[in-house]
Specification:
Layout lengths: L12 E2 L1 H8 L3 H9 L5 E3 L5 E4 H9 L9
Antiparallel strand pairs: 1-3, 2-3
């Protein structure tokens, strides 16, 4: 009998459209931020970008050294 591996903590992920709504920009702008390294993205198995909600909220609140030009 094997013991199950502990599951990594799952964090809510946002789509580019959801992030764009929060920042009031176009979703393509969010993708450009990710390509420029201003925002960390996670790729799904289908190749779509997702963003950690905690990181996005931190950027909105200004609690990080990363600056996002709007």
């Amino acid at each position: 009998m094997t013991t199950p591996r502990p599951r990594p903590e799952t964090e809510p992920l946002l789509t580019p459209s959801e992030v764009a709504t929060l920042f009031r920009v176009d979703p393509k702008t969010v993708t450009r931020w990710a390509k420029a390294g201003k925002l960390t993205s996670i790729r799904t198995l289908g190749g779509h970008r997702r963003y950690r909600e905690s990181e996005v909220r931190s950027l909105l609140e200004g609690n990080t050294h990363t600056t996002v030009e709007v």
